[in-house]
Amino acid sequence: MRGAGPVIETRLKHLEAHLEQENPVLLTTVQSFRELDTVAYRMGLFNPEQSYATQIPWWPLISVLGTFSAGKSTFINHYLGAKLQRSGNQAVDDKFTVICFSNQSTSHALPGVALDSDPRFPFYKVSSEIEKVAAGEGSRIDAYLQLKTSASPALRGKILIDSPGFDADAQRTSTLKITDHIIDLSDLVLVFFDARHPEPGAMRDTLDHLVSNTINRQDSGKFLYILNQIDTTAREDNPEEVVAAWQRAMGDRGLTAGRFFTIYNDEAANPIPDEALRRRYEGKRDVDLADIHERMEQVEIERAYRIVGSLEKTARGFEEKVVPAINQLIAKWRKRTLIGDVIMALLIVGGFIGITLRLGRWEGMQLKAGWWDSLTATPMSMYFSALAAYLLWLVVHYGVRHLAARSLKRAAERSGQKLGIRGSLKAAFLLNTKPWRSIFSRHPAGWSRRNRRRIQQALEDADRYVQDLNDRFTNPSGNPPLELAAANPDAQHMAEPFPEAAKAGTTH
Ligand SMILES: Nc1nc2c(ncn2[C@@H]2O[C@H](COP(=O)(O)OP(=O)(O)O)[C@@H](O)[C@H]2O)c(=O)[nH]1
Ligand SMILES: [Mg+2]
C-alpha cells in the first residue's frame, strides 16, 4: 500500500508525457493528484492500481454527429486546417474516428484497440461496454473505432470525434451504443443536418436519436444543432423556407429553444454568383461559425477549471467525508466490540460460576475445588494460570473485534456509495480493525500529520493553478473570466479537463 502499482504508474507517465506537450498547468496538477493518491493508499482507500488522476477524463471531448453526408468530415478538416478525414457523398467512413493532438507532424491512424487500452482516451474500456449490449462485438473494437493524430494547433487540448452517418437503415446496436457512449462523454455535441435534404424523412434517424432522445437530458445545453451546406439553398426562390422547415421538424420533436446554426464550407460550396446574395450568406455563416468555434474553445477552458475543481474537491473530501465516515464506522465498531466483550465476559464468568457450583463450593471467601486449588497452589502456577487466562481472553477479544468488524462491512460499503467516496471505504475501514490497531485510536489509519500536510499542500496548489489558469485564459479576447474552479466542483462526472488554450492556433 505504499505507492502506485506498475500499471497505474505507466499510465500516469503517459498522461504526463501527453500533458507536457499540451498544457503545463495541468501537467502540474497530476503531481498533486499523485499526492492525494498516496494518502488514499496509506488510508487503505485505494489499492495500488487506482489513482484519482486516471478516474477523470482529461480531454474535453467534442463530437460531431448527424446525418450521412451532411459535411461532418469537411467541417472537421476545415477546423483542423488539414485534410485529415476523407469526405464525399458515398459512405466513406463507417467508423468513429477519434482525433487527438500529437506534435509529430505526420498524422497516424491507430486501430481501435489503441483507444480501448489507453486511459488517456475517452474510449478506454469501451469494448466491455459494447460487449454488454452485443455479445461478441467487444473484441471487434477495430470495426468501430479508429484513432488519428494531428499536429493542428486548433486541436491542442481537445479531442474531436468524427462519426459515420446516422441514417443507415438498421443501425446496429453496437453503433448506437457507441453513439450513446460518445454523447455521454462529450462536453459538446455538434449535430449536423444537411440543407440539401431538410425533409423530415431524410433526417428521421437523426431526429429520433439526436433530438428527441436528448432534449430532456440534464446536459441538453451541450448540443448544438447545425444545418450545414446552406449554400445549396442560394438557388431556391425561398431559401428561408428550408431553414424554417428544418426548425419545424425539430420543433415537432420538442426542440424549440435556440442553438440553431446555419453554415456552409467555402471550399466545398457551390459558388453563389450573385454578389449581394453571396455577401449575405457569408455574413450569416461567419457569425454562426464563429459562435460554434467559440463554443468549442470554451469547452476546453471550462475543462481546465474543472480539473482543478476536481482536485480541490478530492482533497477536501478527505477531511469532509472520508475521515468522518471512517470515524463513524470505527465508533460503531468500538461499541460493538465493547458490548461483545461484556457479553463474552459475562458468559465466561457465568460458566466459571456454573462449573464451580457443580465441582466445588465456596467456604467463606474461599473457593474449594480441586482444579482451582491446583491452579493456585504455588505463586508460579498462579502466574501461569493468570497468563493463560489473559491469553484466552485475548483470543476471545480478538474474535469479538473481528466479528464486530465483519458485521460493519456492508454498512461501510453503503456509506461509501452514499457519500460518493472514490476507492473503497470498506477497505479503509477494515484497515483500522487490523489486530495492531487499537479500538481507541483517535485517528483513522493513514491520517497522519504528514498526510494531512499533503492534502493541505494539494489545496494550496489548487489555488495556484486557478491563478495560473486565470492568467492564461482571462481576457485578451474579451471572454469573461471563468470562476468555476471552486464554484462548480460537482461537474465531477464529466469532469475534469485540462487544456491549454490553444488560443495560439485557432482563428476567430
Ligand atoms: N455545397 C456544399 N457541399 C458540401 C459542404 N460541406 C461538405 N460538402 C460536400 O458534401 C459531401 C459530404 O461531405 P462529408 O464531409 O464527407 O460528409 P460526412 O459524411 O458528414 O462526413 C462532400 O462531397 C463534400 O464536399 C458545404 O458546406 N456545401
Ligand atoms: Mg464523414
Terminal Cα span:
50 Å
Largest sheet entry? 8 strands, mixed
List unreliable stretches of 5+ residues: 476-508
Supply the helix-strand structural class: alpha/beta
- Counting DSSP H or I runs of 4 or more residues, the number of helices is 15
Tell me roughly what share of residues is in helical segments: 40-55%
Shape: elongated
Give the topology string: H per helix, E per strand: HHEHEEHHEEHEHEHEHEEHHHHHH
* Rounded Rg: 32 Å
Count all strands and give the number: 10
Bound chemical compounds: guanosine-5'-diphosphate, magnesium ion
Strand order of the largest sheet: 3-4-2-5-1-6-7-8
Let me know the average pLDDT.
Answer: 84
The fraction of residues in strands falls at: 5-15%
Write the layout of secondary structure elements.
Blueprint lengths: L5 H17 L1 H20 L17 E6 L5 H9 L15 E6 L7 E3 H6 L8 H8 L11 E6 L8 E4 L10 H13 L2 E7 L9 H9 L10 E6 L10 H14 L7 E3 L12 H85 L1 E3 L2 E3 L1 H6 L3 H28 L2 H11 L5 H7 L17 H25 L10 H4 L21
Helix pairs in contact: 1-2, 2-9, 2-14, 5-6, 9-11, 9-12, 9-14, 12-13
Bound molecules: guanosine-5'-diphosphate (GDP) and magnesium ion.
Could you characterize what this model shows?
The chain has 508 residues and is of the alpha/beta class. 52% of the residues lie in helices and 9% in strands. The strands form 2 sheets. Strands 3-4-2-5-1-6-7-8 form an 8-stranded mixed beta sheet, sandwiched between helices. Strands 9-10 form a two-stranded antiparallel ribbon. The model is unreliable at 476-508 (pLDDT under 50). Residues 68-74, 87-89, 92, 165, 228-229, 231-232, 264-265, 268-270 line the site of guanosine-5'-diphosphate. Guanosine-5'-diphosphate binds at residues 68-74, 87-89, 92, 165, 228-229, 231-232, 264-265, 268-270.
